[in-house]
Amino acid sequence: MQAESILHPIPPLYTKDSRILILGSFPSVKSRETGFFYGHPRNRFWSVLGSVFEDAVPGTVPEKKEFLLRHGIAVWDVIRSCTIAGSSDASIKDVVPNDIRLILETAKIRRIYVNGRTAEKLYRKYTEAVTGQAAVCLPSTSPANAAWSLERLVEAWSVIRAETSL
Prior knowledge:
Blueprint: E1 3-7, E2 20-24, H1 29-34, H2 45-52, H3 61-70, E3 73-77, E4 79-85, E5 93-97, H4 101-104, E6 111-115, H5 117-126, H6 128-131, E7 135-138, H7 150-157, H8 159-164
Parallel strand pairs: 2-3, 2-6, 6-7
Antiparallel strand pairs: 1-4, 4-5
């Protein structure tokens, strides 16, 4: 697959009442096609969050947005633009980071989480010094992370529930 330079096509989702921020690395091809985060049907992000919050798994983009906002969750990605081949995190280069201070200055973010090791590495390299906040790394919900069962992911991701309660 040919690498191409891409500008992040999805705006961040948050409100002033968002209490946690979940950052991925960069949207997959499927997410770019659907116009929203974690758009690949095999990505377990939505199933994990549904289980963590004991809530129905949202299906449509409007349902996903409503779900996140209702639970105090902001989402975005570390990368604003990069060169990438398809959805391969391993191919990412020429990174320009997003300025997540936009969210931090507006919302009541208590903690920043990153979805997987690539997002963690990128956050530490490009963003942590700017925000002055460390991020907690959660195991990737990507289908490429087959070593983690849905049950193990739900257990690991359950830490976010306490941060979202008022």
